[in-house]
Write a structure and sequence with these properties.
single chain, 204 residues, alpha+beta, SH3 type barrels
């Protein structure tokens, strides 16, 4: 075949010499030592290759913000212009109607134990604190966290009441329910799945 096209086969040393001559004529500032390593250990790409683009990790649509991101965005902060008692009254009335429906109507003949279990499962909120530094504070609960309640009073002031070492009461339809904050130190999402145990005495 080599005789037909006018080519002659070369030995290994001749092939290496021809390659060096070709590289010198094709590459600027060529140094023979530079080509020794790539020619000896790996294949050299003579064709054009596009640079690889770095893949940008996109945020999945289903991902949620964590607590730190929510705090940075101030999602839990009530703006001063929204700290008005009358703004929360419609929601408060709606909540009272919801509790009445859940308990099947608050009647004098209703069992206190039955009502207590229903109120606990309904994610109960408090309206008055017996914490020593906030005795007599009455208002509407606007926010609940794991360790504190935020209550807005009729004077349009937001009070932060710690749950620990505090007793809260709720009055509805002639019924009064007492809640010991030390036993309530958990998030609402955790409380909905928690089974409350009946205790004879509760220490503050």
């Amino acid at each position: 075949m080599g005789k037909i096209v006018g080519l002659q086969s070369q030995s290994r040393s001749q092939a290496e010499t021809s390659t060096q001559v070709f590289l010198k004529s094709s590459i600027r500032n060529f140094r023979g030592a530079d080509a020794t390593s790539p020619l000896s250990y790996k294949a050299v790409m003579l064709e054009y290759s596009r640079p690889k683009k770095e893949k940008v990790k996109r945020r999945s649509k289903g991902s949620r913000m964590n607590a730190a991101q929510k705090r940075r965005m101030k999602l839990f902060t009530i703006r001063p212009e929204h700290q008005r008692y009358e703004l929360f009254l419609p929601l408060h009335h709606l909540w009272r109607q919801y509790i009445t429906d859940v308990c099947g109507g608050l009647k004098p003949t209703s069992s206190p134990q039955f009502l207590q279990q229903k109120l606990l499962k309904a994610d109960l909120h408090v309206v008055r604190s017996r914490c020593p530094s906030y005795v007599g504070t009455t208002g509407i609960l606007v926010q609940e966290f794991k360790h504190v309640f935020k209550i807005i009073t009729k004077e349009n002031k937001v009070k932060v009441i710690p749950k620990r070492n505090s007793v809260f009461s709720l009055e509805m339809g002639g019924f009064t329910s007492f809640i010991y904050g030390s036993r309530f130190e958990q998030r609402a999402s955790e409380r909905s799945a928690k089974k409350f145990k009946v205790r004879g005495t509760i220490d503050l």
